[in-house]
Amino acid sequence: MAYEIPVTQARAELADLINRVVYGGERVVVTRHGKPLVALVSAADLERLDALDAPAEGQVEEQIVSSVSGIREAGSARREQQRFGIAAEHRGPEVS
Question: Per-residue pLDDT tens for 51-90?
Fold first, then answer.
């Protein structure tokens, strides 16, 4: 659970808040009008968050290859109608 503090109070206590984060292992959420605005976290916590955001090396390429290999060539409309047993065909309004 993070410690919440209003932004006006956080300004006055910034040095103390930094010490709480660094030495006490706390996470501090600075609020404005009761809504979370920013969070103070340790550098170690930030590294862990960054590691979660960054995909593993090579993972992006693997995702692209698997996506592309999953795409099959689209068949003609007539072949798709036969494949799915579609008897009707939509035709747009005729232009005179």
Answer: 887 766 556 666 666 665 555 555 566 666 676 676 766 6
Alpha carbon distance 66, 68 (integer Å): 6
DSSP 9-77: HHHHTHHHHHHHHHHH---EEEEETTEEEEEE--HHHHHHHHHHHSPPTTHHHHHHHHHHHT------H
* Polymer length in residues for the chain: 96
Q: What is the pTM of this model?
A: 0.54
User: Each residue of 56-65: pLDDT tens digit?
Assistant: 655 666 666 6
Helix (H) or strand (E) holding 5: strand 3-6
What structural domains does the chain harbor? 3-56 (3.40.1620.10)
Extract the tokens encoding 52: 């979660």
